[in-house]
Structure formats: structure tokens, C-alpha cells
Amino acid sequence: MDSKRKKSLKHQSSISLTTSLKQRNVRIPYTKIFDPDHNIFLDDLPIEAKIINYEETKFLLSPYIYHIELNHGNFNWIIKRRFHQFRQLHNQIWLHYTKLIIPLPTQHSRQNRKLLEEIGEIEWPKFPVLPETFLIAEGISKRIKILEDYLRFLLDLVIFRRHPALLNFLAISPYSFIEELGLKGEEVLVKKRAGGFRSASCCVRIENFFTDLTGHWRKRWLVVKDTCLFYLYPEDHKIRYVMLFDPEFYADSGIKVTGIANGLRIRNLSRQLILKCQNEKRAKELAEYLNEYSKKNAKDFVHRNRFGSFVPPRKSQFCQWFVDGCAYFEAVSQAIETAQQEIYITDWWLSPEIYLQRPSLGLDYRLDRLLLKKAQNGVKIFILLYKEMEIGISINSIYTKRTLMRMHQNISVLRHPDAVRGGPLLWSHHEKLVVIDQKIAFVGGIDLCFGRWDNYEHRLTDLGGIFFQTAHKNDLIHSSIRPTGLLYRSVSQPMLDDSVQSEAEKNTPRHITKPSMLLQIGGDSFETRSVADLEDVKNNNSLFDEDDKENLDTIDEIDCGEKIDESVTNTTATNTLTNNTASNKSSNLRGKIRKHLLDKRARALAVRAAKLWIGKDYTNFIVKDFTQLDLPFQDSVDRNNTPRMPWHDVSCVVVGQAASDVARHFIQRWNHTKFSKAKFKQRYPWLIPKSLRCFAATDELPSYLTRAHKVDCQIVCCPYLFKMFVSGLIVHFFRKVRSVGPWSIGIRDTEASIVDAYIEAINQAEHYIYIENQFFISQTKTHLSSNDGVKNRIAEALYRRILRAFRNRKTFRVYVLIPLLPAFEGEVGTTSGAAIQQITHYNYSTIIKGYDSLMSKLKLEIEDLDQYIGFYSLRNFDKLNERLITELVYIHSKIMIVDDRISLIGSANINDRSMLGNRDSEVVIFVEDQEYEFYYMDQKPYKSGKFSGSLRRMLMREHLGIYKVNKKEMLRMSDEVNDPISEHFWSEIWNKIAQKNTEIYETVFPVIPSDQIKRLDEIGAYMEQKKLYKHNIEKAEELLSEIKGHLVKLPLQFLIDEPNLNSNYSAQDHFIPQIVWT
Questions:
Q1: Could you count the other beta carbons within 10 Å of the beta carbon of residue 341?
Q2: What is the Cα–Cα distance from 535 to 519, expressed in whole angstroms?
């Protein structure tokens, strides 16, 4: 068989193979962007080349420009080439072939000769010699056929495919066929001026003229993709810079704008790039192409969006909320386990040793171990940390970086800003984001750090070693740090490094395999079964075989009030009976159900036997700030004498295009930090956003989110239903707003879309506004001067909206929940409490203190102001070593819910630091519901948004303690939270419980803050008062038993007469400017 016949058969097999592979959708993984040496082409798929057109020009030697259509897999593109470019390609390929056949004594040469032997004798096609100047009109079609055949010949041979000359001719790079980057855009060799970061100048032509003469110009390969463009080294294909499409993106050319005839200027919000093209015409064509391409393929990013946001609204996106850290941490851990390509994390503070699932029976769900496992599996992990000023903040980010970086080369950690290098001294990166494969994004107020994990109980103590009840209610097992017995086994895994494990970690119990048990701490009575339990059994199909499923209706036959007899624990005999009758099948199923319920409750009670907060995770910020974070498993406070400070927070997760927007923010921050700190370090690669073509309008909801329980159900029978999930919901409109500026993300303009979104949502409110925030520092003045200390106008927007409701005689409620005290170490009334007093001063100045405060201004217009707005907080009590204790529940959430239809969830506090844009960097999710359920608003039927309404009801149920009251009261109160503005709920439920709880705490404990303390010098006398917690414990316990939930009134008269609340400085605080606190 001759060589031509061989080639023909080879070509036919290639075609059939191409067809089958196309059906299998051959792809280059996205992670290959970090490995430019990968196979550039799609495996075994050919590149099809065809000259589809030509145009004649006045160019003398090569008058014809050939339009070449190329296809490779799903990628199609067109290049334009002249004959002299074909000639150059031919010369370089022939030279390359000549080198291959020379028998050099090297391994590379031997491999090439072996490859040539496998290919056989190569018959080169005819290459035209006659210059095009001498071609007649009839000869052009013949030349097109010759050039087509020559291109196909080169593309069919592996030894020529990857030659740089051919790649450049075809406009191909290692990033061309990565499908998740989008279409194959223009790729071209350009020259870039060294130090190409240039800002606009009035003398740009003169500047560029001298730079062209004296400057260094280096070759770069420019690549255009759906969401960005980037350039790389032509030699090794390593990316040198990524430039995102944004509203300021624009390309132009010519001597007027660049000072160079063949110059090309590309600019966006981050930089201005000057390039030199082959000629003036090519520069103009490329500028036009970039502008047209960006408007067509990146229209989501180049257009101006509502609130000035950098991304447009997303429709029909999955969005799910989490209340408190328990559910959030668990969901994050499961999301990390699903990661296939990348994990992005940015936090104000990150603790590597934090346990994401508790009680943890080992190290599998400790954050550092979880990340290590994924890194070992090839997942790239990128972490951005706030680089703190060590003199003022003790979060030890350098320890976090070193701990994570030394674990694996796939983990990269950057810290920012560098104050020493001119970065800001006063501002921080405050976002809390976790992004998985750019498809799943967690956004909110919860850092992955010590002190954040909590649940609806907000426990004050965690001593471990208590009694818990197993399946036999009389069988009591005593456990100290780790429980023993059937449900647990001891830890045997070593630490990440070779250091000796701390005692606390050695005794850390291993993880319970059922995540659904995690929130059953303090569950219902062991003996009593509930409807919720039965529903859980119904939904747990893994319990039953096929015969069982037919008899699931028998579940309803079990009386909800029936006691579970001890004898049912031994169900082996029942479960092993071979029955042919329906009655026996029913009995078998009944035994399985009872066994499941017993196991479920046994695990729930066993949770109490383990420590949930290990080492530094057990904390009280006011008693003692963090120190020695490099010793994470050593307690920072004495848990036998000091209650922990509970932590209340809210976060959410989004999936699909919405998540890609969050990823884009992270990528922008990462690339800015890399450019300023690690420009030439390969350990920190440039990141590239994926194309939106990768995401459907509604991507599939991850399985670990669809396991959620419905929290809106009318019947709430036990705390188990308070697992802080809501079913995967589709919300029609989704927006991402942020606060960023030049220092934080490297853009010229400041984006303050968060404050705009807050104010617009307030203005649109019709029925109520519900706010939870760490701070409440804002401005109510109608007219601001440049000298005013606080500038954001959220309080002013609230003032106007409440006043409008009063004048229109409309029912309107505003709920504001903030912490009782700021979480700074110190004691009010002493120099150590200066930071606490500073924040308290600005909070109260916004709320009630002074003529321009919100309440003071409203009282001038509204006599019965309590009907419109209320300020609240959270507190809890417990017993610690037989002593009654109380502590505030620290509200760290940053949310606002409006009318059960709009939700804002993120990291932004209500203060200037978070809202102005040029200070702290923040991210907030803005959700507008488009799917509704019927509830009530002011006793009238009302369409409540599935997302926002369920979140508001969940929060109110938690704060009111609905899960702790008896069943009848629980059902009644669950119904009543459905109408948040009715007079009955506002006055008889919410405010009444808050007031009663406040009065009980004031009677039992010497609580701070308190309305009884009007001045700092009154604190001493107040603390000396005889309180029941010491002098009449029995009475104190009787009163405390009447407390419902954690809701209390914020004491608005606290230090109301203190004129110098913000002047009691320590020596160190004298150097801190006012804007740090606001």
C-alpha cells in the first residue's frame, strides 16, 4: 500500500474519530490555564482550514488578503493572511523539518526521529513560488487551492502542529480552546512598552514620542476572551497581565491618542495600556474589533448598571440563606468537598484550625485539613487575607498564611494591603467570600475564624464532660472531653505538621456522620416523638427497602404523643422476620422507624457531651481579645469562670451566573494584589474569569443545598426544624453591590453601590424594614457640610420614610437590632473601655443622643414614635458551675429585609467605613423576590417573597424563642410572626417579650448597658446593687424561666447624660482619628 493510500485511510479514520469525539464533547480543563505547557489542541480532533474569500489591495508584492476559516471542535474563527506570511511560515517549517532529520546524539532528537519513522515518508505538497504580482485573475483560484492543501498538510502532522510559527500564523495559544474561557477571540502578536501602566496625560503625544524613541518595546501575545483580555510571553505562554472588561473599557488608535502612528491604546477602570501593532491599519482594525467584541460578548460588564454596580442583575438564580454559623460552616465544608477546579476564599480573618462541622470526631472537617485534601486532589486554592496593622488588631494573618502555604503548592495566600509600601493604614478588606469553581459563592458576614460558629441556642458555656442519655434512658454515660461508647471513637490522626498535638486537640471527638444531627443540640424531650421526627423519617428513603416504601403510610398511625418504650431498642428480631402479610410488613417498618428515632435523639443528646468550641474558639471578646493565635488549641479564657460570647450572624449562597459575579470580584482583587505585591512570582498565578456561557440561567442546585428543611411550615414541632436552611429557591432578580476603590481593588473610581442599594430599598419600603447590623452609625442631617464627621445617609432615609408613613397615616414598622455593646476588650468607664465607648458614642449619636439623632428628630414630628420604630438587641443566660450567668449575644449580621420582598445580605456595616466605598472593601447580595407565598400584612392577605419572607420569619422565631415554648404556644406564635406589622404582633408579641425579658435581666443581673446608668460615674454604684443572681437564686431562676428567646430592648437611656463619652482615651487611642470609628 503506497504512502498516499495510507494517508487517505488515516484521514478517513480521523474523520470518523472526530465525529465520535465531538459527540463526547472533548474539552480542555479550565485548570490548564495554570499549566501553559499542556496540549494546546483538543485531543485527536483535527483543525479544518478553508479559504472562504479574498480581497485585493494596492500592496505591490502581496496584493491579496486571504480570509481563512478555521474549525477545531466547537471553536470557529477567521484569520486574514497575505501570501508573504504563507512564505514565512513555509520557510520556518522547512527549517524545523531539516533540524529534525539531522541525527543529533540527544534524547530529544531520538524521540523526533522515532516520530518521523512512525509517520513514514513525508510527501510535501507543492508550494507556490510565483509572486502574486504576476498572477492573472484565473490563477487566484488555483493558488487558493494550493494554499488550502498546504495548510491542511501542516495541520495533519503532529510534528508541525505545535511549532510556534504555525501557532502564530493560526492565532493560537494554550488558552485558545479552553471552553470555559469562552469563544476563540482575536489573538495577535503586539509590542508592549515596558512599564506600560500609564495614566492619562495632557501631553500624551509628546510623552509617547520620546518613549517610542528611548523606551523598550517587548513582544507580547494578546488574547481576547469573553470576559477579559490578557497578554503573555510568546516564548513560554505565561500570562503577564489580565485586563477585565468594565464600563470604562475602550480601545482607540492613532498618533493623537498614543503619540505613535501604529499605536493602540486600551483602557479600563484599572489601567491604560499602550501597544504597538504591525501597522497603522492593523491598529485601527484591532481597536474597532475590541470595542465591538466587548459590546457584544461582554455587554454585562461594559454597560452601566443600577446602583452603579459593576455587574447587571441576574434573573432566576438559586439563592439560599443561612442563619448563624452552624449551618453556614456545614454548607461551606460540603461545597469545598465538591470543588473540582478552584476554591477562592477571602476573609477579614481566617483561622486554619476552625472546625466546620461539629461535634467533630476527627480532623476531616477542620478547615486546613479540608483544603489540604482538595489541594492534593489537584484543586487550586487561592486565599486573600486582610493584612492588619499588628499594633492595633490581633488576628495574626501572617500565621494563617504560613500555616496554609506550607501545606501544599496548590494553596496560594496573599495578604493586602501593605501599609509600609504606601497602602492605607486605616482601612481593611472586610468581605467574607467562599467561591467554588466560580459556580457556587457564599457571601455574608461570617468569617471562617474562631468565635463565629454558633446556632440558634447561643450557648454561653461549653465545659464538656456532662451526662447524656443513650437509647436506654436510664443508662447515663459520663464524658469529659471526648465521649466514649457506641457513637464515638477516639482521635488517632496526627496534626498537619510534626509538632506534638495539644491536649485539647487530642481529645477532640470525631465527626458524627449525619450532618442533620448538628443542630439538634438541646433537642426535645428524649421520650416524646414529634411530627417533625415522623416527617424526617418519611423523607429518609435510605432507611427503607422497596417493601417498606409501600407501607410508608403506616407512619401516620403512630401517635405523636406516644412514649417510646425501652424495649424497642432491640429491634433485631422484628427487623429479621420474614413476613408475607401486610401486617407483618407494617410491624417491620414500625420497628425501623422507632430505631431511627431513637438513634436520632441519642445522637442529639450525645452532642452535649463533646466540646463544640475547642481552644481559642471559645472566646469572649469583651473579657479578652485574641492572643497567641499560633497556639490555637489553648483556651484564651477560663471556660470554668467566663461565659463565651454567643455570635449571631447571617450569610447566603448563590449558584450560577450570580456566583460568577462574586468570583469576578475576587479575581479583580487577587490580580490587583498580585500586580502590586507578587508580579513576578509564579506561585501566585493570574486568575481569569470564566465565560458566562458556562452558566445556565438556572444552574442545578447542589445536592447539599436541596437537603434543606422548609422553615416556613405552619407546624413547628421541635428545634430540629430550626436547622437554618431554606429550600433551594429561585429568586427572579439578583444583584451584587460592593464598596471598593483605588486602594482596595485598583480601579480609578470609587464604587459605593451598597449605600445606594440600601437607600433605594428604604425609599421603596411600603410596610416594614427589618435591620440587623453590627453598627448603626449614620447621618440624619438634611444638608451635609464637608466638615461633618459621618457622611452616609441611611439614617436620613429612615427618617424620611418613617415621617412619610406618619403623615400618610399608614402602618409602618422599623426593626433595628444591634449588639448591646461593641466587641472590644475592655471595661466601660475605664481607659481600657475607650474603644467600646467610642463606638457606643457614635451608635447612640445616630439613634437618640443629640438634636440631630434619628429619634430626636422624629420625636419633634411624631408623638407616639414607638408605633413606628424600635431598637433591640439579644442576650442569653445560663448556669456555669452552678452559678447564674448572663452575656450579650453579639449581633454581627449585616442584613436588611424590606416588605418580605427585598433582602440585602453581606459584609457591610452601617457606617462610613463600609458604605463610602473608598474605605473598607465590602460585598452585599441584593435579592428581589419574584416567587411568593400568601401570608398576611397588617391582617390583610399579602404575597410574601419566598426568600425574604422565610428569612425574616426564621429570624423572628429564633429571637422570640419559639422553639423553647410548649407545643400549643409554639404553633400560635409561629402563626403570629407571619404578620410583622399587625398591632397585635408589634405590641403584644415582639415588644412585650422584649420589654419583659429586659426587665427580668435588670432584676436578676447587674447588666451593662442599662437604662439605670445615665453617666459613667454611676456605674460603680449600679454594680454594687444587690441582685437576685447572688442573693436569691431560687427567685432568680423562677424569673429567668419566664424569659422567651434572646430578644431584649436596647437601653436607649444608657449614658444619655454623659457629655464626654468619646473623650475617655487611653494614651494609644489619642492617635486614632475619628474616621476609624465611623
A1: 18
A2: 17
* Tens of pLDDT, residues 244-295: 999 999 999 999 898 889 999 999 999 999 999 999 999 999 999 999 999 9
Average pLDDT, the chain: 80
Amino acid at 473: K
Domains, the chain, ranges and CATH? 3-170 (3.30.1520.10), 201-303 (2.30.29.30), 324-457+648-697 (3.30.870.10), 464-610 (no CATH)
Residues 482 and 496: their CA atoms lie apart, in Å, by 21
The pLDDT tens digits for 513-539 are: 333 322 222 233 222 333 333 334 334
Distances (CA, A) of 1050 to 849, 916, 999, 1012: 14, 27, 12, 12
* Element (DSSP H or E) covering residue 192: strand 187-193
The CA distance from 347 to 382, in Å, is 12
* Strand ranges in 194-335 using DSSP code E only, listed in sequence order: 217-224, 228-232, 239-244, 250-253, 263-267, 272-276, 314-323
**Helix 367-376 × helix 325-338 angle, to 10°:** 10
| 1037 burial level (CB within 10 Å; 0-12, 13-18, 19+) | middle
Q: Helix, strand, or coil here: 869?
A: strand
Q: 485 in the Ramachandran plot: left (φ > 0), alpha (ψ -120 to 50) or beta?
A: left
**CB burial class (10 A; 0-12, 13-18, 19+) of residue 686?**
buried
Q: What is the pLDDT of residues 991-1024, one digit of tens each?
A: 999 999 999 999 999 999 999 999 999 999 999 9
Q: Model confidence over 775-819: pLDDT tens digits?
A: 999 998 766 654 468 999 999 999 999 999 999 999 999 999 999
Place of cell 502542529: 161
Give the separation between CA 826 and CA 624, rounded to whole angstroms: 8
CA distance 71 to 391: 60
Q: Which amino acid is located at 631 in the chain?
A: L
Q: How far is CA 540 from the centre of its chain?
A: 30
Which of 578 and 519 is assigned the larger pLDDT?
A: 578
Residue with cell 403512630: 558
Q: Are 49 and 69 in contact (CB under 8 A)?
A: yes
Q: DSSP character for 685?
A: -
Burial label, 825 (beta-carbon count in 10 A; 0-12, 13-18, 19+): middle
Omega into 1009 within 30° of 0, i.e. cis?
yes
- Quick one: CA torsion of 151, 155, 158, 163, rounded to 10 degrees? 60
Nearest by Cα to 255 from 276, 231, 229: 276
Half-sphere exposure of 288 (CA within 13 A, CB side): 6
Q: Specify which residues 906 forms β-bridges with.
A: 924
* pLDDT tens-digit readout, 949-999: 999 999 999 999 987 666 666 666 677 899 999 999 999 999 999 999 999
Q: Does the bond joining 719 to the residue before it have cis omega, within 30 degrees of 0?
A: no
Q: What is the pLDDT of residue 419?
A: 75
**Grid cell for residue 827:** 471595661
Say yes or no to pLDDT of 841 above 80.
Answer: yes
Residue 202: pLDDT over 60: no
Digit-coded pLDDT (tens) for 58-69: 877 788 899 999
Q: Are strands 342-347 and 380-386 parallel, antiparallel or unpaired?
A: parallel
Distance CA 32, CA 213 (A): 39
* Residue 1071 pLDDT > 90: no
Contact call for residues 588 and 572 (beta carbons, < 8 A): no
Name beta bridge partners: 241.
231
- Biggest distance spanned by C-alpha atoms of the chain: 113
Each residue's pLDDT tens digit, 809-835:
999 999 999 999 999 888 888 888 888
Alpha-carbon distance of 143 to 166, in angstroms, equals 19
Taking the C-alpha atoms of 375, 361, 614 and 610 in order, what is their torsion angle to the nearest 10 degrees?
A: 160
> Which H/E stretch holds residue 51?
strand 48-56
Does residue 495 carry a pLDDT above 90? no
